[in-house]
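Field log, afternoon session.

UNIT: design team B
ACTIVITY: writing a sequence onto a fixed backbone
BACKBONE:
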């Protein structure tokens, strides 16, 4: 019997575009999307189960991502970018997270949390010092905002910076820092002992007093490097200082990364939908395919509906961003709800796969566990709910 997908002229692989957004992408956006899709198929999908199981992020991947052009893709070509649109950046994130959220985290951090602040707030000397090599993947960057006792409330950070002569001296500890021990440049946010405000610095990690130690006990994001950073009397120069004052500097970078996440998680979610639909078709149960059971179809239908709505949300957010209308609450809504949709899809897929669903031979449990991190970082579900609540009511409930 022809499935609905067949009747609509859709293969299972095209469930990811149920509402036909394809004609709305520019030719260059499709080209970028397709080249990333091929890369993920060839370089990530065949190995990711094993990498994740072993807690391994391949050291050769950054340069491969650089060759692919996905690092800082929205930046101008003179700094190594592609001058790509935000829609293209969203599609890049979605394709990479179809492979794994840890891979997407590497690209997000490098692009949105390291290259973006260097480009937006760095002097020309600082841009030239780091951006071209960050774009090729020759240099790796990390972003240190969170601390052991300051996550959702970064304003309570304990890391301190003080002016000494012509230089600045930083002391503190940062925790949960993606790519921390691999990085040659760290964007560090610290509170000034001079003006009491938050300032950002692009720190060369070979500077004496800097140390990174990996967190090895993760049951999520296992194919991503996550570290604790120790800064003990680390000296940085005036040139290393970013030209922005206050917490808004760091939070403006999060807007970029949260946008990428709103797109990225759709990749993980659609992977789970496709995997669950294919598995249910092949799995005999009570003498018929599992896919013929109403309870299974209901869950697949919910996955398709939630992820399709998420796709429309992400697409319109990209259009708003391209017009400068991506207000923080709009970004919060898309980050929160698309992560919810993907996590729900991954949990359902894992269950539909039964016992096989707990192995990394399939993607569902890996995506599901990764998404627990994605729901936590870049503002937890609660933080984004409270941002929306504050927007609606005007009351700050943090
Ligand atoms: P609040 O008083 O609301 O704001 C302080 C100043 O910042 C401005 N602002 C923003 N500016 C730009 N973009 C935003 N999204 C902004 N949100 C606020 C605000 O206008 C104000 O400016 P000014 O000029 O008046 O001083 O600050 P608050 O202390 O009450 O905190 C608000 C809260 C909770 C929303 C914020 O701190 C928050 O978002 N917390 C969550 C922290 C978080 O998301 N951390 C992420 C760390 S990085 C990470 O997780 C990387 S994961 C790897 C990957 O991405 O793959
Ligand atoms: P907490 O802030 O302590 O939150 C604990 C709980 O309290 C959560 O459920 C939260 O929703 C809830 N909560 C918070 N506020 C309220 C409130 N007002 N009312 C009710 N409940 C509340 N950070 C970086 O700076 N750079 C990185 O590269 C980076 N990468 C990461 C990679 C991984 C794998 C992980 C796990 C985290 C990463 N983070 C990074 C840190 C991440 O941003 C924080 O974990 C996140 O912001 C939450 O902070 P926290 O862990 O301190 O939790």
């Amino acid at each position: 019997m022809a499935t609905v997908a067949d009747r609509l002229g859709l293969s299972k692989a095209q469930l990811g575009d149920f509402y036909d957004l394809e004609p709305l992408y520019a030719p260059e956006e499709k080209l970028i999307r397709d080249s990333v899709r091929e890369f993920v198929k060839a370089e990530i999908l065949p190995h990711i189960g094993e990498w994740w199981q072993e807690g391994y992020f391949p050291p050769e991947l950054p340069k491969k991502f650089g060759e692919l052009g996905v690092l800082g893709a929205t930046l101008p070509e003179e700094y190594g970018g592609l001058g790509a649109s935000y829609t293209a950046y969203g599609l890049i994130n979605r394709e990479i997270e179809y492979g794994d959220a840890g891979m997407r985290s590497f690209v997000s951090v490098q692009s949105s949390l390291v290259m973006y602040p260097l480009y937006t707030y760095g002097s020309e000397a600082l841009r030239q010092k780091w951006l071209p090599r960050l774009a090729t993947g020759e240099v790796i960057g990390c972003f240190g905002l969170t601390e052991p006792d300051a996550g959702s409330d970064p304003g309570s950070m304990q890391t301190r910076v003080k002016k000494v002569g012509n230089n600045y001296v930083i002391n503190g500890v940062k925790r949960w820092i993606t790519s921390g021990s691999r990085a040659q440049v760290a964007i560090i946010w610290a509170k000034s002992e001079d003006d009491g405000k938050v300032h950002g610095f692009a720190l060369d990690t070979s500077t004496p007093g800097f140390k990174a130690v990996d967190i090895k006990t993760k049951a999520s994001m296992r194919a991503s490097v996550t570290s604790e950073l120790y800064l003990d009397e680390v000296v940085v120069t005036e040139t290393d200082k970013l030209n922005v004052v206050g917490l808004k500097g760091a939070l403006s970078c999060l807007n970029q990364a949260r946008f990428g996440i709103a797109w990225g998680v759709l990749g993980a979610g659609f992977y789970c939908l496709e995997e669950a639909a294919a598995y249910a078709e092949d799995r005999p149960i009570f003498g018929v395919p599992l896919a013929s059971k109403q309870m299974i179809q209901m869950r697949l239908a919910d996955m398709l509906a939630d992820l399709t709505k998420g796709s429309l949300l992400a697409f319109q957010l990209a259009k708003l961003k391209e017009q400068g209308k991506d207000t923080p609450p709009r970004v919060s809504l898309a980050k929160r709800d698309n992560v919810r949709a993907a996590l729900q899809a991954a949990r359902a897929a894992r269950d539909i796969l039964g016992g096989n669903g707990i192995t990394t031979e399939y993607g569902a449990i890996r995506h599901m566990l990764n998404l627990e991190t994605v729901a936590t970082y870049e503002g937890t579900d609660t933080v984004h709910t409270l941002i929306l609540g504050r927007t609606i009511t005007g009351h700050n409930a943090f």
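LOG NOTE: Residues 105, 108-109, 143, 145-146, 152, 154-155, 178, 246-248, 251-252, 254-255, 257, 328, 377-379, 383, 387, 398 surround 3-thiaglutaryl-CoA (ligand 1) (CB under 6 Å).
NEXT ACTIVITY: expression trials, pending approval
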